[in-house]
User: Fold this.
Amino acid sequence: MNNVSKNIYLTLLVIGIIFSLIGVFGVFNPLMFSIYLIEILAIFFFMNGVKNLVKGIQLIKNPNVHWSLFILLSILEIIAALSLLITPFSSQIFIIIYIGFIMLLKGIFVVFNSLFHKNIFPGLSSVTFSNGLIDILFGILLIVVPFISQQFIFLCVAWYILFSGINLVMMSFSIKKNIL
Assistant:
């Protein structure tokens, strides 16, 4: 059993469970979730940024993967997390739309990467593809929803975190099945 693969499996499993619990909390308690939305988004995007940074660094030696895009995406996610913590209420709608654009770009990147590089990790391509579709769907929702109804933003974010967590748990089990 490879230590790096085991660490990836455990990291994805733990982050997936945390995201799923936060998502369930947001779906079943939207009022309390809306109060802590800024902090939840900051933590969520900071954890995603760190995950993508680690992933990008691990894939530097693989010529088939665009590792620099993972690192760029991680930097954007960490900047978004820090900006949410520094100026939480002055630009809340702007930050949500910005995060929607990041999610949309990330989703497009992940979908194309999973389509063109199926041979690298054949068992993970379907889970990675579904993760990209989730990002595209909720990225579009976060871009459009603030112009329609600000009350729906909280549920949109909660469902996204829930689906992301479930997808990360599925990805961790797929890694365990195919790599370990």
Remarks:
- The mean pLDDT is 79.
